[in-house]
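Tip: read the tokens left to right.
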């Protein structure tokens, strides 16, 4: 039981870190090593100073939806972890972690929705930027998709996990 508890806790912390990185980092779309875009900024590398020059992205409704859903996913996963820690010490023996599991499942669903919207509407989100045929999805976008099954699996494990002494 202790091994399962450590595994679930570690999985939760890993997915939370991955979600945070996917939400805050700068590589949802990459044109080359010189120009990238994320949920918040469009950046280009200045060769003379070797630093990134960033400007705010054009706020489209699709981009705002992705931003909100990714932030909600981080919030749901964070709340889930805090509730799990609280339940771990206060729940009676034999109790189930329903609320923790549901928060994790909601985090997975909001993450999936955000990644799906970005997948289907990246042309509208990145309008006015460079030609999309010369670019590709970045690692933060892939990280967001990798989080989806991990969040859903950990949510299901939490729902079936029973506190034992």
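Filled-in amino acids:
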């Amino acid at each position: 039981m202790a091994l399962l508890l450590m595994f679930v806790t570690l999985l939760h912390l890993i997915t939370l870190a991955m979600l945070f990185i996917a939400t805050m980092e700068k590589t949802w779309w990459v044109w080359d090593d010189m120009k990238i875009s994320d949920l918040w900024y469009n950046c280009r590398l200045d060769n003379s100073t070797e630093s990134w020059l960033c400007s705010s992205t054009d706020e489209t409704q699709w981009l705002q939806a992705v931003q909100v859903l990714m932030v909600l996913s981080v919030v749901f996963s964070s709340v889930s972890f805090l509730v799990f820690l609280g339940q771990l010490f206060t729940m009676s023996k034999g109790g189930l972690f329903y609320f923790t599991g549901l928060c994790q499942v909601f985090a997975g669903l909001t993450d999936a929705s955000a990644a799906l919207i970005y997948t289907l509407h990246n042309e509208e989100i990145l309008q006015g930027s460079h030609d999309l045929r010369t670019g590709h999805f970045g690692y933060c976008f892939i990280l967001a998709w990798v989080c989806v099954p991990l969040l859903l699996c950990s949510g299901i494990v939490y729902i079936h996990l029973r506190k034992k002494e």
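The beta strands are 29-32, 35-37, 41-46, 51-56, 136-137. The chain has a mean pLDDT of 86.
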